Amino acid sequence: MSKIFVVTSGEYSDKGIRGVFDNKKLAERLRDSQGFNECIEEYELNEIASQAKRGLNLFDIEMERNGDVHNCTLTSTTEASWLTGIKETLPVSNGNTAFFESASSYSGEGDEIIITYRLRFIGWAKNKEHITKIVNEKRIEILASNLWPPDAVEDLQ
Predict the structure, then answer these.
(1) Measured between alpha carbons, how far is residue 154 from residues 61, 111, 114, 119, 127 in Å?
(2) pTM
(3) Closest CA to 42 of 87, 6, 92
(4) What is the DSSP secondary structure assignment for residue 15, as one 8-state letter?
(5) What does the alpha-carbon distance between residue 21 and residue 27 come to, in Å, rounded to a whole number?
(6) Which residue ranges make up each domain of the chain?
C-alpha cells in the first residue's frame, strides 16, 4: 500500500494543511523549514477500500484496566484522526491506543475526585467480539509492561 504524508500546523479551528507528499523526506523538509510547530501525519492511500475488501470495519473502543468495555462503536478514519496529536499515544499493531482521563467523584472524608484511565483503541476488526479480543490482548501487554498510568486522587478543597 502507498502512504501519503500530510504536514499540518495549528490546533483545533486553527489547524491547517501545509502540504501533502508521497515521500516522507519531502514532508520532513517542509516541516523543518517552517517556523511553526508542524507535525507530519501518515496515512495509507485507499486504506478503507482495502480493509473493507478484507471484511474489516473500523472500531472505536474503550476498555478499563479490569477489561470492562465501554463505547464500542463503528467509526470512520476522519473521526479517528483525534489520535494524531495525543502525547500519550502508544503505537501498537492494528490501530492506535491512547489513555484519557475518566473522572468520577465519591463522597468520603472530603470532596475528592478519583481519576482513572481507560484504554482507547481505534483499529480494524471483523466485528465487536474481534475488536474486544484485540484490545484485551493489548491491555494485557500494557499491564505486563507496567505502562498503564496509576489512578490518582485529587482533593477539591
Answers:
(1) 27, 9, 6, 21, 38
(2) 0.59
(3) 6
(4) -
(5) 6
(6) 3-44, 55-155
